[in-house]
């Protein structure tokens, strides 16, 4: 458990960033591999950029608004 | 030589080397330089073995597309962590990294153990310097390996790209050690937060680009899109810092206008 926690803290150390990026990656994988979602492939790049920005904003919001 | 890879490795390494140098300096001044340097060199050797082993293994056995996807995701995680910390520090919501405070704190810790200055090797001093250099250096090793293996292209092979990243890190290390040897004090003049911010933007940019490529995304303008992506993240960062500063001001105004809390309101009985 200590090793897992050390690796988590070393790489990311923030649950919002970790979960946000994992969700974005799963959605991207679905877009690329499910044929019904093929029309969305043209916006996959834009989706990834927006997801990264959304994760950053969410993580900063928690830090900023949680200090009340 | 890939300059963007070498620059990123140089900046990231400079930040980490400053932190490691502070601890090595404390050990050198309070215990002895022999133990301090022994610990630091042992950690540097360990890091070199880690880079050589993992770097070579990744170069030889993992296909570049899979590598880019995995490294891209890891770089996004790593980059967002650095970027978040730097933005919080810029806005004043988090205290700036204070090398002098770390220096004093570690100095007090060593003195509390009653260590005396002796010419002999002191296990505690060696262990302290080793731990500091190894822990800070691991982040450098991670960046050197991940950047080096993923930045390979037709012009520069994986080995060449790892070499570029390792060169950037080595130059940063030599520069910080030279500066430290001249100053012999905590290197507080180095704009650590600015370096961390730039590296955070670069890691997030490369991470997004490679993750996209790993999923088969064709970026407009090919590699030039990296510049557009970096500009986009920079712009977003400036907007976010402005917003965070406003939030901090609102907190301060609220705190100054709030009525004082009495014992009754707090539910405290005399």
Keywords:
heterodimer, A: 68 residues, mainly alpha, 3 helices, 75% helix, flat, B: 270 residues, 9 helices, 79% helix
Description of the structure:
The complex is a heterodimer of chains A (68) and B (270). Chain A has three helices and no strands. By secondary structure, chain A is mainly alpha-helical. Chain A has one domain. In chain A, helix 2 (15-33) packs antiparallel against helix 3 (44-65). The longest helix of chain A has 22 residues, at 44-65. The model of chain A has no long low-confidence stretch (mean pLDDT 89). By secondary structure, chain B is mostly helical. Chain B has one domain (3-255). Chain B has helices at 3-30, 33-61, 64-91, 99-112, 123-150, 158-183, 192-214, 225-257, 263-266. In chain B, helix 1 (3-30) runs parallel beside helix 4 (99-112) and helix 7 crosses helix 8 (225-257). Chain B is flat, with a radius of gyration of 22 Å. The N and C termini of chain B lie far apart (72 Å). In chain B, 45% of the residues are buried. The mean pLDDT of chain B is 80. Chains A and B meet through helix 2 and helix 3 of A and helix 3, helix 7 and helix 8 of B.
N-C termini distance of chain B: 72 Å
- Mean pLDDT metric of chain B: 80
Helix and strand composition category of chain A: mainly alpha
Number of strands of chain B: 0
Biggest protein-protein interface? A-B, 30 and 36 residues
Q: Into which percent range does the helicity of residues of chain B fall?
A: over 70%
Taking the sheet with the most strands of chain A, its summary is: none
Q: What proportion of the residues of chain A is helical, as a percent range?
A: over 70%
Separation of the first and last Cα atoms of chain A? 32 Å
Order of helices and strands of chain B: HHHHHHHHH
Q: What oligomeric assembly is this protein in?
A: heterodimer
Please work out how many helical segments of chain B DSSP would assign.
Answer: 9
Strand content of chain B: under 5%
Q: What is the C-alpha radius of gyration of chain A, as a whole number of Å?
A: 15 Å
The dominant shape of chain A is flat
- How many domains is the backbone of chain A divided into? 1
Helix count of chain A, per DSSP? Answer: 3
The largest sheet of chain B, given as strand count, sense and whether it forms a barrel, is: none
């Amino acid at each position: 458990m200590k090793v897992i926690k050390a690796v988590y803290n070393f790489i990311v150390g923030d649950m919002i960033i970790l979960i946000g990026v994992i969700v974005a990656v799963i959605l991207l994988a679905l877009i690329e591999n499910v044929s019904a979602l093929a029309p969305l492939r043209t916006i996959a790049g834009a989706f990834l950029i927006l997801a990264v920005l959304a994760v950053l904003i969410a993580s900063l919001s928690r830090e900023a608004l949680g200090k009340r | 030589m890939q300059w963007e890879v070498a620059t990123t490795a140089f900046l990231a390494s400079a930040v980490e080397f400053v932190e490691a140098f502070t601890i090595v300096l404390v050990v050198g001044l309070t215990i002895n330089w022999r133990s301090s340097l022994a610990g630091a060199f042992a950690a540097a050797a360990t890091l070199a073995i880690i880079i050589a082993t993992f770097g070579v293994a990744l170069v030889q056995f993992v296909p570049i597309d899979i590598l880019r996807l995995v490294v891209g995701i890891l770089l996004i995680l790593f980059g967002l962590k650095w970027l978040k910390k730097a933005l919080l520090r810029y806005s004043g919501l988090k205290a700036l990294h204070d090398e002098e405070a770390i220096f004093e704190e570690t100095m007090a810790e060593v003195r509390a153990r009653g260590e005396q200055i002796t010419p002999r090797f002191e296990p505690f001093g060696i262990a302290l310097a080793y731990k500091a250099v190894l822990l800070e250096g691991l982040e450098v090793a991670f960046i050197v390996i991940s950047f080096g293996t993923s930045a390979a292209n037709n012009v520069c092979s994986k080995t060449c790209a790892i070499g570029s990243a390792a060169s950037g890190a080595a130059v940063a290390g030599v520069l910080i050690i030279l500066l430290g040897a001249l100053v012999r004090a905590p290197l507080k003049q180095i704009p650590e937060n600015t370096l961390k911010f730039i590296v955070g933007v670069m890691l997030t940019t490369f991470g997004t680009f490679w993750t996209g490529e790993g999923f088969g995304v064709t970026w407009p303008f090919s590699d030039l899109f990296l510049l557009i992506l970096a500009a986009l993240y920079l712009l977003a960062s400036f907007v976010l810092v402005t917003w965070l500063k406003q939030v901090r001001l609102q907190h301060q105004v609220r705190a100054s206008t709030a009525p004082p809390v009495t014992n009754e309101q707090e539910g405290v009985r005399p």
